[in-house]
Design a protein that fits this description.
alpha+beta, Alpha-Beta Plaits, four-stranded antiparallel beta sheet, 4 strands
Length: 188
């Protein structure tokens, strides 16, 4: 039942037949010793045994497994490679008409073809010079040149020349990684 403290009423009295219970003080737990030497010693010995078993058991079991494998497996056959002998003894006859003409060297005395990569074409010579310096710092052979066309004056930043298309493609990839849109130009 709730009590109204504002009006200071007393709660109704309890019947006289019941006696109030006497509270007994709570028992405090007995103090135990924090260190028990026999239990501690047994735990240390048991732990050391587990560590020894874990460190030496895999080696012991592996030795017994390898011994069983050796007994069960038949000896391996010797592998003989005959391909080298076959290549030395045989000849291959091909028909050059089966291959497209672009793979054949039409004129071996012609000068080798070179490749140039145009990194950018810029309006300002300062921007072209800055890009050239940036590319040279990365190890690319860069140059820029002034070109006058009908739409105005442009400064072309080029990288190269490269003796093979593979090297030019590597430079293209490095320029694309820098968010540039390069073009491959074949010379000769």
């Amino acid at each position: 039942m709730t009590r109204d403290y504002a009006r200071h009423r007393k709660s109704p009295k309890k019947p006289a037949g019941k006696r109030p219970r006497r509270r007994t003080p709570a028992r405090k737990p007995e103090k135990r010793s924090a260190f028990n030497a026999p239990s501690f010693s047994a735990g240390v010995i048991f732990g050391a045994g587990l560590i020894l078993l874990a460190s030496y058991a895999p080696g012991v079991f592996q030795e017994s497994i390898n011994a069983v494998r050796i007994e069960l497996e038949p000896p391996a056959e010797e592998i003989v490679f005959e391909f080298q002998e076959m290549l030395e003894q045989d000849t291959v006859v091909t028909d050059p008409s089966d291959y497209p003409a672009e793979f054949l060297d039409s004129d071996p005395s012609a000068p080798p073809r070179e490749y140039l990569v145009q990194a950018a074409s810029l309006r300002a010579s300062e921007a072209a010079a800055a890009l050239r310096e940036q590319l040279m710092a990365q190890g690319l052979p860069a140059n820029y040149e002034k070109v006058v066309i009908s739409s105005g004056t442009w400064y072309r930043v080029t990288v190269g020349p490269f003796p093979t298309e593979v090297e030019a493609n590597r430079a293209l990839t490095r320029l694309r990684e820098q968010k540039l849109t390069p073009r491959l130009i074949k010379l000769g």
